[in-house]
Q: What sequence folds into this?
C-alpha cells in the first residue's frame, strides 16, 4: 500500500481499514510513504513489483495522475486499486467519495445562512478530488445565482502552511470573505490559525466549513463544521475489492465505487449571517 503523506491523519485511517479487511482474508500489508513525490511513488511501484506482491493499494501523489504512473500501473500486470484519487486514464479499480456532492452541501449550507462572499481553499487542482470539490463549490454558487471575484478561489497544497498562508491572503482582501470552504483538514487548521492571528472571530467575522472531519474538531473552540468522509470504510472497500481481484472472485472491466459523505454542522458555521440587502430576502429563506 502506497500513501502520499503518513503525517496527514486522513491516510492512517484508510490504512487501518485496509489492514483490518486484508488480515481477515489472510493477507498482510507492506506500507510505503511517497511524501507526495511521484519519483518515490514510481520507485515503490517497482520495488513492490520486484518483491512479488499479490496486489497494490495506491493513493496517488499530486503528480501521480499523469501518464508516467498510468504506464507504470499497466506494466505491473497485477491487481491494483486506487483509493481517494483516480488516474487521468482508467487503468485500475478505484474507491473514492462523492467529492463534488460533499462540497456542494457544505457551500449550500453557508449560502442558506445568508453568506454571499464565500471563498474556497483548494488543494492542487491536478488532483481529481480537489477538482471535484471546486466543482461542487461552483455548483452551489450557481444554484443561488451568486458570483464571486476570482481572488476568492485560492489553490494551495493540502497542508497546514498553505492553509495559513492563503487564509492570511483572504483576510486582506476587500471585500473580505465572510465564509471560507477549506478543502482538507490540514488546510483548515492553517486557516483557523490565520483567523486567530488576525484577531477575528469565527464564525461571527469568518465562518468556516472543512472538507474532512477529525476526531478533535469537536474539542476546538469553535468546533469545526465539516464534510465527513467514510475514511475507514474506504480502506475496507479497497482492500476487499483488491483481494477479490487477486483471488479471481471479480473479473472483467474496472469498477469505480463512490462512497457517500455527510455534512456535520458545528459552531464554526452555526450562526445566521446578514449582509444587508444581499441576504434575508423571502427568496433566500425559501431556498434555505
A:
Amino acid at each position: 500500500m502506497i500513501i502520499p503523506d503518513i503525517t496527514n491523519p486522513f491516510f492512517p485511517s484508510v490504512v487501518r481499514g485496509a489492514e483490518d479487511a486484508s488480515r481477515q482474508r489472510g493477507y498482510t500489508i507492506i506500507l510505503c510513504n511517497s511524501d507526495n513525490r511521484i519519483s518515490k511513488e514510481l520507485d515503490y511501484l517497482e520495488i513492490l513489483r520486484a518483491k512479488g506482491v499479490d496486489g497494490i493499494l495506491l493513493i496517488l501523489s499530486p503528480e501521480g495522475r499523469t501518464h508516467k504512473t498510468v504506464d507504470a500501473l499497466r506494466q505491473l500486470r497485477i491487481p491494483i486499486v486506487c483509493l481517494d484519487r483516480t488516474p487521468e486514464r482508467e487503468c485500475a479499480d478505484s474507491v473514492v467519495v462523492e467529492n463534488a456532492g460533499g462540497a456542494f452541501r457544505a457551500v449550500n449550507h453557508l449560502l442558506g445562512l445568508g453568506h454571499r462572499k464565500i471563498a474556497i481553499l483548494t488543494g492542487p487542482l491536478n488532483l481529481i478530488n480537489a477538482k471535484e470539490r471546486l466543482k461542487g463549490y461552483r455548483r452551489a454558487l450557481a444554484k443561488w445565482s451568486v458570483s464571486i471575484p476570482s481572488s476568492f478561489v485560492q489553490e494551495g497544497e493540502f497542508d497546514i502552511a498553505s492553509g495559513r498562508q492563503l487564509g492570511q491572503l483572504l483576510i486582506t482582501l476587500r471585500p473580505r470573505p465572510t465564509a471560507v470552504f477549506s478543502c482538507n483538514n490540514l488546510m483548515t487548521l492553517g486557516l483557523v490559525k490565520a483567523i486567530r492571528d488576525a484577531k477575528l472571530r469565527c464564525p461571527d467575522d469568518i465562518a468556516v466549513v472543512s472538507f474532512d472531519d477529525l476526531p478533535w474538531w469537536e474539542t476546538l473552540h469553535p468546533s469545526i463544521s465539516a464534510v465527513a468522509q467514510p475514511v475507514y470504510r474506504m480502506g475496507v472497500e479497497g482492500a476487499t475489492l483488491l483481494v477479490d481481484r487477486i483471488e479471481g472472485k471479480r473479473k472483467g472491466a474496472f469498477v469505480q465505487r463512490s462512497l457517500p459523505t455527510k455534512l456535520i454542522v458545528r459552531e464554526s458555521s452555526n450562526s445566521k449571517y446578514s449582509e444587508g440587502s444581499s441576504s434575508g430576502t423571502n427568496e433566500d429563506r425559501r431556498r434555505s
User: Anything to note?
Assistant: Residues 128-143 form the longest helix (16 residues). The CA atoms of residues 70 and 222 lie 43 Å apart.
